[in-house]
Each structure stands twice: as C-alpha cells, then as structure tokens.
Specification:
The structure holds 2 protein chains of 2 kinds.
Chain A lengths: L3 E3 L3 E4 L5 E3 L1 E3 L5 E8 L3 E8 L6 E2 L6 E7 L2 E6 L8 E8 L6 E2 L3 E5 L1
Parallel strand pairs in A: 2-12
Antiparallel strand pairs in A: 1-4, 3-9, 5-6, 5-10, 6-7, 8-9, 10-11, 10-12
Chain B lengths: L3 E4 L2 E5 L4 E7 L7 E6 L6 E6 L5 E4 L2 E6 L4 E6 L8 E7 L8 E2 L3 E6 L1
Parallel strand pairs in B: 2-11
Antiparallel strand pairs in B: 1-3, 3-8, 4-5, 4-9, 6-7, 7-8, 9-10, 9-11
Classes of the chains: A mainly beta, B mainly beta.
Chain lengths: 111, 112
C-alpha cells in the first residue's frame, strides 16, 4: 500500500510563528504536492515538486515556501503564520502517469 | 481563478437512489479527469477517472459521463448507500500524475 505520512495531524500555532509541516512518502515517488482544503473552495494547490530540489508555485503560494532536499520528503513552511492560514493541509505524491495519493491531512489553527 | 466548477455543493439522496454530481472545466488542454472521495478526518482517495477519448466509464455502482464538446463531466452513483456519504471532488490535470485542479466539492448524504 502507498503510504503518504503527514506527521503532525493537529497543530495550534500563534500568529507570527514559523510553522513546518512535514510529509514523507515511502514509494520513491517523483512528484509531490501540497494543497490546502477550505469549505466551499475545494483543494487549492500551494506548491508542487517533480524532482528533488525542484519546486514550482501552485495557485496560492503567497505566505508559503517548500523544501525538498530528499526525494521522499516534501516540507511546507509558513514563514510567519497568520490567522487566514488556518486550514487543513494535504500532502500528495505519485509517479508521472499514475494516480495521485493523499496523506490524511494536517489541521492547522493559527491563533 | 477557478478552472473547474462543481455542483451542487451539497446533495441529499435516499438509499437506493441515484446521486449525480456535475463538473465543468475551461481548459481544453486537460487530459485526465479523476473523481476523489473523502470521508471525515481522512485524505481524498481516488474513486474513478476518465480520459477525454471515451464518453463513459463504469466501475461498479460508479459511472463517469464525459462530454468533451460541452467541457463537462459528471459522476453518477447508482443504488446509493449510506456508506457512500462523503465529500466528492472532481478534478482535472494536463496528464496523469500532474498537478490536479479541483472543483469545490460536493457533500453527499445518503439517508437510510
């Protein structure tokens, strides 16, 4: 079974804090993605990566950055958390030409 | 900019009925159209997918109908069951495994 693991399921952070969301996949997937999910808006793409050390902006990259130093790990970074970044964050991965698999999500609350 | 529009936002269906969710897209370069199912507290999971060279794909009780000229596709759930109660997302991408653009989601509730 494909495993996409988001280590932090529930986080509460203060405004202005730096936040790291970690995602690890165990299938040697090339492609990895970070989405945020908000009611009525569906899933919106923040950043994606088709290879190690490669990153591309998605539709809503403002206020976020990413890091992909190793193939299996794709980290989402909120440099200075704000209340409008309270959301559920979903990591996903795949090989090109294959189904995209999602992790179970990280619920982030910024107070 | 919402490139994939999904309706309805919520849907209530009686057990045994047919659930229908519709999506429309704008970009004719999209080449892969999956539907994802999400249960509370879980990540989305692929349910069924179609490419634009076919007009229909069926897997068990789930069918995708695809209308390339209208740039629309829909999910039909036959004989809907309470266990089908979940949020459903349509999506589109340029190729399988590429970044997905999602619709807004439909919360389906199947009443016993």
């Amino acid at each position: 079974d494909v495993k996409v693991t988001q280590s932090s399921r529930y986080l509460v952070k203060r405004t202005g804090e730096k936040v790291f969301l970690e995602c690890v996949q165990d299938m040697d997937h090339e492609n990895m993605f970070w989405y945020r999910q908000d009611p009525g808006l569906g899933l919106r793409l923040i950043y994606f990566s088709y290879d190690v050390k490669m990153k591309e902006k998605g539709d809503i990259p403002e206020g976020y950055s990413v890091s992909r130093e190793k193939k299996e790990r794709f980290s989402l970074i909120l440099e200075s958390a704000s209340t409008n970044q309270t959301s559920m964050y979903l990591c996903a991965s795949t090989f090109s030409g294959n189904t995209i698999y999602f992790g179970e999500g990280s619920w982030l609350t910024v107070v | 900019q919402q490139q994939v529009k999904q309706s309805p936002q919520s849907l209530i269906v009686q057990k045994g009925g047919i659930s229908i969710i519709n999506c429309a897209y704008e970009n004719t370069a999209f080449d892969y159209f999956p539907w994802y199912q999400q249960f509370p507290g879980k990540g989305p999971a692929l349910l069924i997918a179609i490419r634009p060279d076919v007009s229909e794909k069926k897997e068990g009780r789930f069918t995708i109908s695809f209308n390339k000229s209208a740039k629309q596709f829909s999910l039909h759930i036959m004989d809907s069951q309470p266990g089908d109660s979940a949020t459903y997302f349509c999506a589109a991408s340029m190729f399988t495994g590429g970044k997905l653009i999602f619709g807004q989601g439909t919360e389906l509730s199947v009443k016993p």
